[in-house]
């Protein structure tokens, strides 16, 4: 398989980069991460109006751009570079992927246009408190109540769950795992902002005590389809990790060229230079992993191959991003340990991204099964 | 060099004409490749009369394709005369006299004359330019003394490409010259260099008062480094890459061994090993994908850093893959079935996965040393790709003879 980004892809990358350099510089990131909301409604609106970024993978019939995983990955990579604080992963990636995977036609028609227009913040409450991203772990129950449903359970690590207008909840019904929508102000629903390791990505916990819900999937057991939706989201997140890792490599290299100790730039010492060279290898491998997974998801019909490429990308890019941010702190010395320097923002983002949607070990476990090991 | 245009069609016809004149299934290697050379189909980018037609080098693939299609026997250049064809012929074409081109090039291609490269020395590994073998002018000859090491094929070579010091009074890069050495000349002694596997893939070459006529100097006196540097670059490019198909190469052997030996391990150690193998499978796949990406980028005319990381990544990865292979074997790693009989390796030795893994566990130690150590590769990535400053150089503007050196 070729990794052939087209000229249009490069143009998209440059356009998004210019936009984010203007709207999501370090100062903006620091200001937003200190707020409870966690993002700027104005920038969110501009992202939609000027760039149609929320519309990337929404089908054209629902007002979207109809792009696929490759174009989405380019956008995420650029967002990862600047640590954009916005409910993008939750709304434009996870919720859209989930709705496209299992959503009924009416639910798609109902929700997707608002997402594409930047009017809706949506998320999927997937993980049960104490559980993980394994679909079999889902314990939250959905019971039929006439034509409606009632949900009971506790959800954790819900991306932007404290601000989402559209709350989609993965719950277990008698006929299997399904996707349900609850109103954010429904009675019996409680949502709390979680104090997070990574301030640039907000999470919430959600308690559901017999909350009225509508079923938005097309019926039947959605486990396999939701698993794929999570995998596609992980592919996008891998691209975000690549963007952050590349940025950290640049920060480290730049610092190593200009920081003088013992009368010479520290980058002239092999101890530092070789760390940077190893970071470069990690970043290049991570790019291969993330791009390959995106192209696979876009071009292959083989579900197992798409999942395998996703597991590979999410596990490798997670480790690579973490290693690179860890080395970035070390190369920057004492400066890298300060609050003032952005190294810790990337370091924390790297760790939180490694855990979201399954940590490297879990993804390798699944890849090992795929390889028959 | 401007290339002559020729249609693929015409080149295929010329190749078929060659096969009518001589068929590799019926005559020996030297005869057939001699005729191939005379038809200008040896290396099509060389000039007419020297085994080529002045075409774009990419056109050689057309010739090889036609040869493979129409005859059972196909000779891979790498098996015939790797150093002669890869480095010897280009250096003779660029720097040799007409006489040398006439007498040497055809025999390089046929494999009648095997060539070797005499660069590394015991005291000059990564710092090849610091080498200390010496050539002193004596009338029309140069008299050479010194020792070379890690010389592949020297024991069967007719010619050697020798870089040696002709002027110790200038900084190291400026004081070397490049010679064609007659490996049969008096004073050239080749000894096998037994390595970690017990085999001798390489040689030591001792040079004692060896006389080389002045006209066998390639390039000018003092230009040896410049002439040599291009061939070193080729070596590094040739060593990067990654295996062609997914799950192939070393990690394929590791996975096969795991399937045969997983039962040896239980509980936590089995889980740990399995994860380790998965990590190595991931990196192997990424090595392969990264070299795909590098090829695509250079085809598109903008080669990036993806092309430079291959050598370092591959060396470090392959060592770990073979280490893990022995972990998979458990206590059976205590056994080395073939024993350490000191000998020359056969051209094509067949080993099953088990023996191959044990052999490679030892052989792969050289991966991070040969063709540029991993430390040198990291310097190159740091300095040429990332633009980090070089180390302060203590030997740069100093006469070679005044630079401190060990043995």
Describe the structure.
- The complex is a heterodimer of chains A (373) and B (407).
- Chain A has 373 residues and is an alpha+beta fold.
- Chain A contains 11 helices and 9 strands.
- The mean pLDDT of chain A is 97.
- In chain A, strands 1, 2, 3, 4, 5, 6 and 7 form a 7-stranded mixed sheet that branches. A two-stranded antiparallel sheet of chain A has the order 8-9.
- Chain B is an alpha+beta fold and 407 residues long.
- Chain B has 3 domains: 8-110, Butyryl-Coa Dehydrogenase, subunit A, domain 1 (Orthogonal Bundle), CATH 1.10.540; 115-222, Butyryl-CoA Dehydrogenase, subunit A, domain 2, CATH 2.40.110; 240-371, Butyryl-CoA Dehydrogenase, subunit A, domain 3.
- In chain B, 42% of the residues lie in helices and 13% in strands.
- Chain B has helices at residues 8-21, 29-38, 60-70, 77-80, 82-95, 98-110, 224-239, 249-261, 267-299, 310-329, 353-363, 374-385; strands at residues 115-118, 134-138, 141-149, 159-165, 176-182, 188-193, 202-213, 217-218.
- In chain B, strands 1-4-5-8 form a 4-stranded mixed sheet. In chain B, strands 2-3-7-6 form a 4-stranded antiparallel sheet, with no helix packed on it.
- The longest helix of chain B has 33 residues, at 267-299.
- The two termini of chain B are 43 Å apart.
- Classes of the chains: A alpha+beta (373), B alpha+beta (407).
- Chains A and B meet through helix 7, strand 9, helix 8, helix 9 and helix 11 of A and helix 8, helix 9 and helix 12 of B.
Q: In what range is the share of β-strand residues of chain A?
A: 15-25%
- How many DSSP E strands of chain A? 9
- What is the chain-wise order of helices and strands of chain B? HHHHHHEEEEEEEEHHHHHH
What is the H level of CATH, i.e. the homologous superfamily of the largest domain in chain B?
A: Butyryl-CoA Dehydrogenase, subunit A, domain 3
Rg of chain B, Cα atoms, Å: 24 Å
| Number of DSSP strand runs of chain B | 8
Query: What's the overall average pLDDT of chain B, rounded?
Result: 92
Which class do the helix and strand fractions of chain A yield?
alpha+beta
- How would you classify the helix and strand content of chain B by structural class? alpha+beta
CATH architectural grouping of the largest domain in chain B: Up-down Bundle
Tell me the name of the CATH class of the largest domain in chain A: Mainly Alpha
Determine the N-to-C terminus distance of chain A.
Answer: 24 Å
User: Poorly predicted ranges of chain A (pLDDT <50, ≥5 residues)?
Assistant: none
Question: Which descriptor suits the 3D outline of chain B?
Answer: globular
